[in-house]
Amino acid sequence: MATSASPTRTLPFLGRLTKHHRIPVHALEEASERAGGELVRLNMGPFRPYLVTHPDHVQHVLVQNQSNFVREGMFWEPLAPLLGEGILSDGATWAESRRILQPLFTARYVNALAEQMAVIIDELIDETITPGRPFDISRGISAIVHPTIVRLFFGSKISLADIARLVPAYDVAVTAKAMRLVMPFVPEGVPMPGDRAFRRAIKAIDAVVYPRIREARERARQGLDQDSVDVVARLVKAREDVPGEEGERRIRDDLVAMHGASTETSATALTWVWPVLDAHPGVAAKMYEEIDRVVGADPVSTEHLPHLPYLRMFVSELLRLYPPGWILPRKAVAPDVIGGVEIEGGSTVLLSPYLTHRLPEFWDTPSVFDPERFAPGRESGRHRYAYWPFGAGPHVCLGQHLFMMEAPLLIAGILRKYRPVVHIDRPVTPRLASSLRPPPGLTMTLVPAGRS
Predict the structure, then answer these.
(1) Which of 127, 166, 247, 404 has the most C-beta neighbours closer than 10 Å?
(2) Distance of alpha carbon 112 from its chain centroid, rounded?
(3) Quick check: 404 pLDDT over 80?
């Protein structure tokens, strides 16, 4: 940490938010461009967070001095009813939840489930997609991703009917608080658009999750499920020393975190695949050629994946330009100095892989979608924290190994059979939500491969 600090540059921001009220992320892009990697403050009237984009500064906040930058404050408090106090919090409760959930997300464990995942995805593609019929991309991809994870991790503890209730509830929960992300200085007691919808979504999630927890606890009391490997049984066993409602709440928070880490971010990222392929026909042609050559008409298996390098490069570039967890606020517990700029204790710092991944100092033509950036050998020499789509440090996303297995299986599973025709009548730009999402209502038609 530096021993002296320089004056902090402040950028006007509230006016830019007003200018870009339809696509607020553009206001942040402009601020990042003006900052040029420098640590600055954003003047939002009563709220003046620090904007952190340079990889050195990201490393300081998320790794080197991460204990001083906690997941608390104005951005996190509105989401507390959804996130709870488990893996997405901080302190002892976070450490306990991380210890319980981490074994379910290791590369070794995910690899052991990969072939089963491939079979499930292939079945769900056939069940979900009707060739030649337009469908909502976000809903269609969710209809594959969510049941895949439920079948893989939860067994029969959560039914297909429950999934049908959970999927839209999660969708609402992560989008309804968008206004509070833009205006975090507004007290929670002041009603804002989306508040009611958010409360209804939490109620719907809890109505599914809590009964499953109570059923699993009752089976555990009867000595059943002792050898079960599904997630609900594991969490019940891990929390058996916490009785009553407190135990139920902790299991609920872990389940919601587990579900979010394994489905919500995956479904969001995979929704971007189709407009990107539509906008880049040269990239799409390379994808089709590789998948046709390697997979052909066979179901996709894990044996195919090592022979699909361009697909993996495509996924990496997709995460560069469209990281689902696009903004990560932190609260400074104590004063600090980052890049020569003094940070006040109690203040908010905003980190964003979406912005860091677009810094021209570290990425040539950063707005251009180019999977070749991730070709073997080209990543050497790149700053470790110039690319961090899954976060960094102790709070790095548990679901990264799962996503990097799931994504190519799903993409190749669809493209081995179909070619997407995306129906676009306007620019596809990110909408403001807790995760980085395309605009709602984006549709496409999948036609059999080999037909125009």
Answers:
(1) 166
(2) 23
(3) yes
